[in-house]
Amino acid sequence: MPLVDSHCHLHFEPLRDDIEAVLTRAHEHGVSHMLCVSVSLSDIGPIQDVMRRDASVFGSVGVHPNEAGSTDSLFDDLVRLSAHDRIIALGETGLDYYRLEGPDTTRQQTQFRQHIAAARQVAKPLIIHTREAAADTLRILREEGASDVGGVLHCFTESADFAREVLDLNFSISFSGIITFKNAQALRDVARLVPEDRLLIETDAPYLAPVPHRGRSNEPSYVSHIAQCLADVRGESSERIAEITARNFFRLFKDARPTATALPSTGVGPGSG
Prior knowledge:
Blueprint: E1 3-8, H1 19-28, E2 31-36, H2 44-53, E3 57-61, H3 74-81, E4 87-96, H4 104-122, E5 126-131, H5 134-143, E6 151-153, H6 160-168, E7 171-175, H7 185-191, E8 199-201, H8 223-234, H9 238-252
Helix pairs in contact: 3-4, 8-9
């Protein structure tokens, strides 16, 4: 059963330095598709380079909340760059107050609002990053009408109450290798509660390698460990988790078109969704 890595950074070191081998290992381990996610506008070129190497790789355009820069033309830039071939989402964007100092709150919130406005303009879903900013994240999603386009809360580490709130806002929830960590029982408890049709999996490679690869550079081929952990937590087979998360990926990211590597049993195909 093919797996989909819904969030990775193939254009980051060390993955980009060995990209052909990384992509080969991913496919050898059953990963049929990958979403290579932007953290700055300068990422668009390197992401397109990866997409040209492999038709199973999609991309996004966005600016991570920790990336400083002018917001003057951000809306226009996001709209323009999102029209590029196989760019299927806007993000990652959101709020990260973990190391926040001074006026960065205003900049992050302005930037976040511009991403939501651009996503609504181009009718593409959002990839949301949030860290120690749950209340403001929810408030801005509501105020800016983000539910019109929906999206995904990536690398989810928040509470069950937060999960329920974002599910009500038309967002899916993606679990990373963190769910395999020994001290992540609270997160595994949340994973049991997520409805089947809102569940995604990701590596966030090259970060957050799952057990048993913790401490190494992460890569898409390791997403099977996350699927297996979710299967154990939810009392389902890993094949079932692969099937539903692949289907959910193509339902959410409507501009993504499966390549021939996607099996018919995933229920997705060109024009589905």
